[in-house]
Amino acid sequence: MFGWLHLTIPPAPALFAQLLVGLINGAFYAMLSLGLAVIFGLLNIINFAHGAQYMLGAFCSWFLLNALGIGYWPALILAPLIVGVVGVVIERLFLRHIYRLDPLYGLLLTFGLALIIEGVFRQEYGSSGQPYQIPPELLGGRNLGFMFLPNYRAWVILASLAVCLATWFTIERTRLGAYLRAATENPALVQAFGINVPRMVTLTYGVGVALAALAGVMAAPIYQVSPLMGTNIIIVVFAVVVIGGMGSISGAIVSGFALGLIEGMTKVVYPEASNTVIFVIMALVLLVKPAGIFGQVR
Amino acid sequence: MAQRGSSAWFLTAVLLALALVAPFVLYPVFLMEALAFALFACAFNLLIGYVGLLSFGHAAFFGSASYITAHTVKVWGLPPELGILAGVAAAALLGTVFGWLAIRRQGIYFAMITLALAQMVYFVALQAPFTGGEDGIQAVPRGRLFGVIDLNDTLTMYYFVLSVFLLGFAVIVRTINSPFGQVIKAIRENEPRAVSLGYHADHYKLLVFILSASLSGLAGSLKSLVFQLASLTDVEWTMSGWVVLMTLVGGLGTMLGPVVGAFFLVAMQHYLAQLGSWVTVVQGIIFVVCVLVFRRGIVGTIAFYAAPPRDVPIGEKPTKVGSAAARGTP
Q1: Maximum separation of any 2 CA atoms in chain B, in Å
Q2: ∠ CA B96-A284-A29 to the nearest 5 degrees?
Q3: Contact A115 B124 (CB under 8 A)
Q4: Is A236 within the bounds of a domain?
Q5: What is the pLDDT of residues A119-131, one digit of tens each?
Q6: Per-residue pLDDT reduced to its tens digit, B172-202
Q7: How does pLDDT run across B194-229, given as a tens digit for each residue?
Q8: Closest by alpha carbon to B7, among B220, B303, B317?
Q9: Looking at the domain assignment, is residue A26 inside a domain?
């Protein structure tokens, strides 16, 4: 009866290879849901354009390389800066007009922005992807005995972990983070203490967008740089956010990595379900704990 | 009130007369497409406009009904009326499950959950054998309605589509103007208060969700018969965004707004079809403009200036999606 469920245990190298792919995907889920959570915390807006901004980051590094000859390592700093500035402009031009409204309007507005950004890139580059070379320093890999680990992938996992931990540290353990958390609770009171809350909001959006762009740069050599790369991932990240709950920064990181791993496992056990497993988990979590695993009821 | 009532009847009569002569003036396939999407948008509006729940996954119901109708009519050889019923039943079933899951959360979470669930349906449609993958189900026969009326004739098909649209629209009007409709509006305006009055808010929300999903399915079934095609476009997230945009342009929470929005955007798409991906850009711009400066939509704006609501000071910005202030009329 379950003949279609080929549950045979695959050879260890294949298993570890898929787990590695899962871990890589999880790294991107974690970085993107982290950015979403940071933006949502202060702006009360679900940034639908997050996927488009991730795509912008990848394209930005591609431009820097092909038009200006600027390689991967400078792009790792430059692309998030450039896209972050774009984010600041978006916040000043559009988002600040809708803070008093129902958060749903924020979702609709950023959805519109995502359509604009992706439409322009699709018109220019079609739906096909542009290749981006792995930087020469990270070519090759090492044999760990039980599997082959490409250097670039190891770098992505370590770098994204570092970025996630740095963001967590900034928000939970520094004075700036304390201001941020206070402004999330009560912006009027924080403003009364002499802190420029509107500027903090703008910069927070810029940093959240820059995080998405950084993920985009890191993703460029792994996936192809394509106009559609953003929407494909953002819907999964929304599911990750629903599962983890938007309440905590650490929750976003943990659930991002964990769900990436689960997705990788599914690819080994039952590949047909690998696209949908995260959505199924979301449905199950909603049944058992509607607020999300790390969330509080809002 | 008597005056408002008579002017409403007058408007209804004029619109009906226009709908009856329209296929002799305008391209009938355009009209049928617009009517199918108008029904879809009205069904969607039932949820956002009257319960305040923004679904970003209505393509799941539209698309699955479209696939089921196309499959049952083409492969099983069912007559069109049974094919449509099968499509609506599938959408209702899906709506029951999704609604049951999604109403556990509110606001933006609700939007994200519906989007994610709909994406799951998209992947199923992409991989399931009967949907034909990228090609979709093509050359769907329109067949004979009740075994008698030949729907291959364009004009006959138009009047059939018009009848189904009017039926769906009547169901929506009747629902909103019933005691049930009053309760769902009460839940939208102040849920804790409605609960304290003894209404099971979740129960009501789920029922509206299922109704909205079923009518979206009806629209999807119609669409697959009109174009004789069910494809991945019908279940993609872009379709969910498309119906949100139609409702937003026409006016969230207004009775005629979704219809006006659907006609406006379907017409726009026909004129801009040769522009390729720029259509997406134009859609995005309309979204941004609507949210920033045109939150009442076309019909909402007309209603606002024709009869300014007394309970909301003139000039006050609508803040809550689908609320009385956003709608313009009390």
Answers
A1: 58
A2: 115
A3: no
A4: yes
A5: 999 988 888 888 8
A6: 999 999 999 999 999 888 889 999 999 999 9
A7: 999 999 999 999 999 999 999 999 999 999 999 988
A8: B303
A9: yes
Task: Identify the segments of chain A with pLDDT beneath 70.
Answer: 1-12, 247, 296-298
- Interface A-B, measured as beta-carbon pairs within 8 A, has a size of 133
Q: Which of residues 56-85 of B touch A (CB under 8 A)?
A: 56
Tell me the domain boundaries of chain B: 25-327
Has the ipTM of the complex gone over 0.95? no
For A97, nearest residue in chain B (alpha carbons): B292
The boundaries of the domain holding residue A228 are 12-128+149-288
**Which string of b and e fits B163-192 if b means at least 16 CB within 10 Å?**
ebbeebbebbeebbeeeebebbbbbbeebe
Chain A residues inside the 8 Å CB shell of B285:
112, 116
- Between B88 and B313, name the one with better pLDDT: B88
Does residue A297 belong to any structural domain of this protein? no
The number of folded domains in chain A is 1
pLDDT at B264 exceeding the cut of 90? yes
CA A59 to chain centroid, in Å, comes to: 16
pLDDT for residue B5? 66
> Is A140 a member of any domain?
no
The Cβ-side half-sphere exposure at B137, using a 13 Å CA radius, reads 27
CATH number at residue A184: 1.10.3470
Q: Please list the alpha-helical segments (H only) found in chain A.
A: 12-43, 50-68, 72-93, 103-125, 151-173, 175-185, 187-192, 197-219, 229-244, 249-269, 277-288
Task: Residue A115: list chain B partners with CB under 8 A.
Answer: 241, 280-281, 283-284, 287
Q: Which CATH number fits domain B25-327: 3.30.40, 2.40.30, 1.10.730, 1.10.3470?
A: 1.10.3470
Contacting residues for A207 by C-beta, under 8 A, at least 6 apart:
A38, A84
Residues sharing a CB contact under 8 Å with residue B15, sequence separation 6 or more, in sequence order: none
